[in-house]
Specification:
The complex is a heterodimer of chains A (about 110) and B (about 110). Chain A is an all-beta fold. Chain A has no helices and eleven strands. Classes of the chains: A mainly beta (about 110), B mainly beta (about 110).
């Protein structure tokens, strides 16, 4: 069965510290993976997708097929990064993880 | 395109009343999804449509919930009768392909007293 696991419900880091939001997936085929972000009381919006291999707002994510992971990273956290982050697996429909709330402390 | 449009943005109603949430997907998108978001349960997929046809409604919690998509530019999610435990933010999303990026609406914040 397709599944996305985000093991941390809440992650708190200090401003300027590195951030890693974990995402593991289970999928038998060639996966397409996404990270969505939801700022307070706003809609979910796409942050990045693995096929584009780009950095958005300083975030990057690398697909590791051996470890079936797609962790989201940023070298220096900013206060405006505080939000809910969802990892999603490209299937019909998308399979979302439970989400991780990132809190960046000044 | 204005993106996915939802109305109303906020709804406060009393237990037992009928609630209708509305969604206009992005033009040209063949897939439409309804989600519910709560603190306790996170983001839950309720139902999704492809070319106006409901494909999977296994996430609809009870018979009190129903969804329709009469045409490619409009969908409704109805709760009748509403209960306090239905209080949540309801999101609509659309995509051009089933497994592709979904574009979310701003959500409807429902409070059932």
């Amino acid at each position: 069965a397709q599944r996305v696991t985000q093991p941390e419900k809440l992650l708190s880091v200090f401003k300027g510290a590195p951030v890693e939001l974990k995402c593991n997936y289970s999928y038998s085929g060639s996966p397409e993976l996404f990270w969505y972000v939801q700022y307070s009381r706003q809609r979910l919006q796409l942050l990045l997708r693995h096929i584009s291999r780009e950095s958005i707002k300083g975030f990057t994510a690398d697909l590791n097929k051996g470890e079936t992971s797609f962790h989201l990273k940023k070298p220096f956290a900013q206060e405006e990064d505080s939000a809910m982050y969802y990892c999603a697996l490209g299937n019909t429909p998308l399979v979302f993880g439970k989400g991780t709330r990132l809190s960046v402390i000044a | 395109d204005a993106g996915v449009i939802q109305s109303p943005r906020h709804e406060v109603t009393e237990m037992g009343q009928e609630v209708t949430l509305r969604c206009k997907p992005i033009s040209g998108h063949d897939y439409l999804f309804w989600y519910r978001q709560t603190m306790m349960r996170g983001l839950e997929l309720l139902i999704y449509f492809n070319n106006n046809v409901p494909i999977d409604d296994s996430g609809m919690p009870e018979d009190r919930f129903s969804a329709k998509m009469p045409n490619a530019s409009f969908s409704t999610l109805k709760i009748q009768p509403s209960e306090p435990r239905d209080s949540a933010v309801y999101f609509c999303a659309s995509s051009s392909r089933g497994g592709d990026e979904q574009f979310f609406g701003p959500g409807t914040r429902l409070t059932v007293l």
